[in-house]
Amino acid sequence: FLITVLITRFVSLGSILAAFSFPVMLPIIGHPTWYQEVLAVFVFAVVLFLHRENIKRLLNGTESRFVIKK
Q: In sequence order, which residues have a C-beta less than 8 Å from that of residue 16 and are 6 or more positions away?
């Protein structure tokens, strides 16, 4: 999440990629049960659903970027 936000300054993209990495990394770092994998995929699907407007803005190039003001 943090690396994506620092590079792209898109918080929504960081959230989406972090949610995607959850089911992908789960079998790599451990031995999840089938219901843990299903839950991880479900969490990713929910994040995608909740970020659907952000995804549209990212594709259109209109998503706002994270800016730190002084």
A: 47, 48, 51, 54, 55
